[in-house]
Specification:
By secondary structure, the chain is an alpha+beta fold. It has helices spanning 95-102, 106-109, 122-133, 138-152, 166-172, 177-190, and strands at residues 2-18, 20-25, 35-45, 51-54, 60-66, 70-83, 154-155, 174-175, 195-202, 213-216, 218-225, 229-232, 244-250, 259-264, 269-279.
């Protein structure tokens, strides 16, 4: 188990004066079976009140409006979380039992439907079907599909855009964690395995020194359902460990962006992001 302090600073610098902005932030971790949130706070400049709620998928949302004229918006989320590893397990089941279990609950049935972001390239769908045909156990099939996708796509910043789809990223065989998660989710759903997008943070150092800050980043991985929900990080080809901090879940990235909003003002703006993660214990 590790205790991690996370500081995520982001926001926009506008070309001119903005008269008002309306925003949602999904930047604060949650308490779950494998992590415990010790404390968290959200700082906004210009100062404003915040309305917090839990969305449909269980993610903490901070909603706020800035109604005074401003040229810059800064949001800083600070959190302290205790995290323990949660390696994937493979509860014994069959494809028939999985199909029956999936249809009994909305939470699993809705994670079978492809979105515009996850719709798989025909090659990916065929690859997933080939792997699934080799396994009597859908959990082990899911694990091999996720690992295979991660091996096939090169991690490269700038190869895709924030709005790129799984099909576009697969065509390039390059992308970031968001793209690799979308491709994996599309592949799993193509063979009848419910899968969802997970957003959070990852400490970049395998065995971080206590007290030494590290430049981190927002991260994305996947969870699939084969009797229970299991997680896997296809970008790193690894189980979900005690360096992964969960923030939110959804059907794809569109359900869990760190910051989303609209504003009245000049068309151009510049986004800035900085994540710092420090192991405290």
């Amino acid at each position: 188990m590790k205790r991690l302090r996370i500081e995520h600073a982001t926001g926009f610098e506008y070309e001119g004066e903005v008269s008002a902005s309306y925003n949602e932030a999904r930047m604060l971790p949650i308490t779950s079976a494998h992590q415990f949130l010790l404390n968290s706070a959200l700082e906004i400049e210009p100062s404003t009140s915040v309305n917090s709620y839990i969305d449909y998928f269980g993610t903490r949302v901070s909603s706020f409006d800035v109604l005074a004229p401003h040229r810059r918006l800064d949001i800083t989320a600070r959190s302290l979380v205790e995290v323990r590893a949660r390696p994937a397990e493979h509860p014994e089941t069959s494809w028939a039992r999985l199909a029956a279990a999936t249809g009994r609950a909305v939470a699993t049935a809705e994670q079978l439907t492809q979105t515009a972001r996850t719709e798989p390239h025909p090659e990916v769908a065929e690859l997933a079907r080939t792997i699934a045909a080799r396994h009597r156990d859908p959990g082990r099939a899911a694990h091999e599909i996720a690992a295979t996708i991660g091996d096939a796509v090169e991690y490269e910043v700038g190869a895709t855009q924030v709005h790129s789809t799984a099909g576009e990223a697969w065509h390039e065989r390059k992308g970031v964690c968001q793209d690799i998660a979308h491709i994996t989710i599309g592949a799993l759903r193509a063979v009848g395995i419910p899968a969802r997008y997970v957003s959070g943070y990852l400490h970049p150092v395998p065995d971080p020194e206590i007290g030494r800050p590290a430049v981190g980043e927002s991260h994305a991985w996947v969870e699939w359902f084969t009797g229970d929900w299991q997680g896997f990080d296809p970008t790193n080809g690894a189980a979900i460990g005690d360096r992964h901090v969960l923030v939110g879940r959804g059907r794809d990235y569109n359900d869990v962006p760190p910051l989303r909003g609209v504003y009245a003002g000049p068309a151009d703006s510049v986004l800035h992001v900085q994540v710092t993660i420090t192991r405290e214990a």
